[in-house]
Amino acid sequence: MTDPIVTLDTGRIRGVRDAAVVRYLGVPYAAAPVGERRFLLPQPCPAWDDVRDATRPGASAPQKIKEFPGLDVTPLVGEGWQRGDDYLNVNVWAPAGGGQGLPVMVFIHGGAFVLGGNSAAVQDGSAFARSGVICMSITYRMGVDGFAPIPGVPTNLGLRDQIFALQWVQRNAAAFGGDAANVTVFGESAGAMSIANLVASPLAKGLFRRAIIQSGHGSMVRTPEAGQRLVRKLAQMLRIKPTLDGFRSRGLDETVAVTERISQPNVRVDLRNDEGREPVYGLSKFVPVFRDEVLPQHPLDALKAGEGADVDMLIGTNREEMNLYFVPTGVRPKLSGWLSKLILKKVEPRAVPALKAYGLGQRGQKAGWVFTRCLSDLVFRYPARQFAAAHKGRTHVYELEWRSPQTGGELGACHGIELPFVFNTLASVTGPQGLAGENPPQALADRIHAIWVEYARTGALPWGEYTTADPQVFALEAGKAEREPPMPCAAVLA
């Protein structure tokens, strides 16, 4: 069996083939963002003459991964920093039988804009290739290099990398058998936030036909003023001036180290918006800013004005998103009422009425459980519904309610749990410390994966559109859509 070789606009690459899938791994879509190109806009990748090997995973963006108590998160976020200059790259999975005009799906990974890559086991695209889809997964600059609005540096370089990668997809999809006119972008967590921003960005117009936003929305963006406060704090910690030259004087290892330090909850920096709300609720210091050419206005306002109306959108959440952060760590049962209020007050000006709306102080309601229910809605579920309601185009909403039995049955429908079902990679998260526990339902994975494939192929979904008049939400495990009642936080935040 001969090695598969395809010709891109920059040269030929060699992949690896098995019985059903061809893989091309670590293919650069832009020039290495190091040396003089660090902190610059993404640049075209230099062409090569020989056949380039694409049989092994490529480099990942600089990062540092910490262990997560009680869970093996490696399948979700990867092995950490895989060093190499060409860390702006794409992995491609294609059907071994070939074909032309196939639907293309491009995945953008999550990781709080500071972690992750395109080679994590849970996002292996082989099942999509076996289903007749060209699946791609991209990397992008993160942390200081990707999302710190340093004076003299183009803003939102991480988002600009993603746009540059999608332009690469437009030029090269046909080489793998894909249809550049039928591209679906999909992503989870920070990747989903990125996609929500791309839907709202005039710079991404025409680069994709559909968007699947998994546990994300467009409200986790900062004002330029808040972003500058972050830059000044980083500069102070690095003992440099908050300028391009100052940050250029520090290497990648130093900026990765300061990213980890500033991400600690005890490091104080005021990142609240004009309403006194921290839009990320403390989950990450690094997120996109708006009021630049990538995001001229807040993504929610952009959608209300009609931006992204030409894109079909599927957006959804998991029912118990915040359990991932508070259950395996053992924090939830330790939270008292006053501590819950204290924590939430730091990021949400309506903290007390919000918690009371979810039952804080009522007989039989445990504070930690109230806190995680409230925060799941505030951080993920409610703003995702707001984003769906603002979209002027065709919009559908889902929710995954399947509960992981991990952590004594308490982990539940947590953040990230939909990924192995979407990619049909349950084996990667099955086991004593796996996110999905010992015996997750393969039939559900087959069904969810098939929904994603058909949506990418034709745009069809087995339930009706979401509107403010009829907010239909499809429960993935139950397999039915129901009109969703207002969330308790909706009246508090109105």
Automatic annotation (TrEMBL):
Its Gene Ontology cellular component terms are:
extracellular space; plasma membrane
Enzyme Commission numbers on file: 3.1.1.-
Q: List the Pfam families hit by this protein, alphabetically.
A: COesterase (PF00135)
Provide the Carboxylesterase type B domain boundaries.
Answer: 3-473
Record-linked InterPro entries: AB_hydrolase_fold, AChE-related_enzymes, CarbesteraseB, Carboxylesterase_B_AS
Q: Which residues cross the membrane?
A: none
One BP term from GO: choline metabolic process
This entry's Gene Ontology molecular function terms read:
acetylcholinesterase activity
Its top-level enzyme class, in one word, is hydrolase
Q: Which UniProt keywords apply?
A: Hydrolase
- What is the similarity comment for this entry? Belongs to the type-B carboxylesterase/lipase family.
Q: Which PANTHER family match?
A: ACETYLCHOLINESTERASE, CARBOXYLIC ESTER HYDROLASE
Q: What is this protein called?
A: Carboxylic ester hydrolase
This chain's source organism reads Brevundimonas lenta
